[in-house]
Amino acid sequence: MLNRSLPNRFVLSALLALNLVALSVQAADKPAFDIVAVERPRIMAKAAEYLKEQPITVTASHSPRSAGGLHDFFSEGDYWWPDPKNPDGPYIQHDGLTNTNNFVEHRHAMIRMTEIVATMTSAYILTGDEKYAQHAVKHLKAWFVDADTKMNPNLLYGQAIKGRFTGRSTGVIDTIHLVEAARSIELLKNCNSPSLSAKDYGAMKAWFREYLTWLNTHPYGIGERDAKNNHGICWSMQAAEFAHLVGDDDVLNWVRHQFKTVYITRNMTNSGGFPLELARTKPYGYSLFVIDAMAGIAQILSTPQDNLWTYQTPDGRGMARGLEFIFPYIADKSKWPYKHDVLYWDEWPVRQPCLLFGGFALNKPEYLDVWKKLKADSNVDEVKRNVPLRHPLLWVGPMKPMK
Fold this sequence. Notes:
Number of helices: 15
Largest sheet: 2 strands, parallel
Mean pLDDT: 92
CATH topology: Glycosyltransferase
Order of helices and strands: HHEEEHHEHHHHHHHHHHH
Low-confidence stretches: 1-22
Number of strands: 4
Distance between the termini: 26 Å
């Protein structure tokens, strides 16, 4: 079983041994799946370009509609539009239809940061070249350490709606893109990169600890935590990785319990689908999104003693069932038996992380074969927004830099 989620206190050699087992997944008539060979050209090409990029944080832009300050993350609800009958009044909702005139600069900046940081960390793992780790740390410090540019550790102003709310609990989903940033910090520390000083590492952990506390105590965080659909699951994916970074066992145990007793037992049907997502105006995209988030939780929190990948209810519901439901429609979308998404139907699927993680964890080479054939990088904002785990080497790659 692949396990890339063991705490920092586990020795590096043990982690590497587990990972080597994971990388040997193969069909009887095929060679082992080599994730390093697949990812190296993509990562190294992007890393060469990203070395030229300077940090851009929330302080680089500000919306006049934001009730927050310069360091506060701000976004607007995607599906909210001006009311034709009252153009200056409160926005109205059109579910599934994204208003491209909304303020998205902070979200784009966060996605950009994580893309750069995760790529640099992946390149460091591939090469051992400290210049990649150094560049990753530069961007991480701008977001989480440096007083002039860092983001405040809360989501008070996420997914605001003009004329209705200055912020909402649903805004918490925007920070799913911090999961791979937190993962990168953890890996750079585990790899003993000299570019990540003890002082900066401590400051980054402090930022994520404060944000995790906010997620568990502020009404917005609590509201998102208790959401019944993909929002609650995405809260747990974030909380799991942030808690993993800062060593909060209480949160880790809570998410494990929630995963088993709610997400699998209540949210998933016997067929492996998620009805709250299938009922949306973009049922295909949301079905991909929720199973990817579930896979993220399983990947982060599974241990040899508590394997969320193989956990099942008495009637057989679990991650294997969830992937059995969605896999045929990723392999051949034309077989999708439900209504088509109102937008972005043609843009899906891409390299969904559920296939990669599930392929290794459940010994399913066919999942890996399909994953490899799909598009690795998309320029479509909707896709980038809804695929927060895009860097396989942070999750299934070598556990120490390759020289």
